[in-house]
Amino acid sequence: MRHAPALLLAVALLAPAAARGEGPSPAPAEGAQARPPALQVTIDRSKVDLKNRKIEVKLSRAAAKVRLKVLGQSGAVLAEEETPFDGAAAGTPLVVTWSPASDETVARIEVYGHDTEGYWAGVAIVPWNMRIPHEEVQFETNSDVIRPSEVPKLEASLKKVSELLAQHGEIGKITLFIVGHTDTVGSVEHNLGLSRRRARAIAAWFKGRGLSLPIAYEGLGESAPLVTTADEVNEPRNRRVDYILSVEPPRLPSGEASWKAL
């Protein structure tokens, strides 16, 4: 049986995993069979369901099986599963589930795809993220300017972010994601733009104060309220900004929303 000589662990939900780190292969000897292209394993970010403990995997060649190894934040192995797929065609969505030994928070999921020719490749998912509790910055109406009176709130948030980075920096490449929200006063288009500008203003403030980790931002306007209201309702709890530390980009609603690097 032929096996790939190494496993590349990619800390990205959609990153392909090349099981080989080789340069161009030499021309095969006469009569020898050429090596097939490297097996690719991909995972659909939108189909990663930690609550129901299942993910969707695709292989670039016919699939024999998929193996999972689920690790908790303590480093303990929470589950090891192997699911056969009996030669499912390349590109077929392969749903894999697991049953954990405990309710410990998942820190890492290693995914190994095996094709029907005896090759394998793998990726690792790091689903860790943490929302930062904070006091909301108050902006003037229709403004994205951070007033001097609001700076102490941001300084307190910066301190929390720095403390959490010191505690969890070994997890991987962490990014600060900032997402803005509004209430329903004003048009949908106006609120979307306003929430995006305010999120960017806060991201720029953190960057300007020397926060060295990557920062991304987006605004969702009134589309994801904390409190559901009718239109044109002035609801302070919906005028908020979320701060999220995460290795993987948090999922955004479908449509035009996308994370923007500062």
Which residues sit in consecutive blocks of at least 5 with pLDDT less than 50? 1-27
Please report the total strand number as a whole number: 12
Strand order of the largest sheet: 8-11-9-10-12
Q: What assembly state would you assign to the polypeptide chains in this entry?
A: single chain
Give the overall form.
elongated
- N→C terminal distance: 48 Å
Over all CA atoms, what is the radius of gyration? 23 Å
User: Total number of helical segments?
Assistant: 2
How can the largest sheet be summarized?
Answer: 5 strands, mixed
Q: Give the percentage of residues in beta strands.
A: 25-35%
| Helix-strand pattern | EEEEEEEEHEHEEE
How helical, in percent, are the residues?
10-25%
The whole-number mean of residue pLDDT values reads 86
Structural class: alpha+beta
Characterization of this structure:
- The strands form 3 sheets. A 5-stranded mixed beta sheet has the order 8-11-9-10-12. The protein has a 4-stranded antiparallel beta sheet with strand order 4-3-6-7, with no helix packed on it.
- The chain contains 2 helices and 12 strands.
- A hairpin with a 4-residue loop joins strand 6 (106-115) and strand 7.
- The protein has 262 residues and is of the alpha+beta class.
- The protein has helices at residues 151-168, 188-208; strands at 41-43, 54-59, 63-72, 77-88, 94-97, 106-115, 120-125, 129-131, 175-180, 215-219, 241-246, 260-261.
- The protein is 15% helix and 28% strand.
- The longest helix is centred in the last third of the chain and has 21 residues, at 188-208.
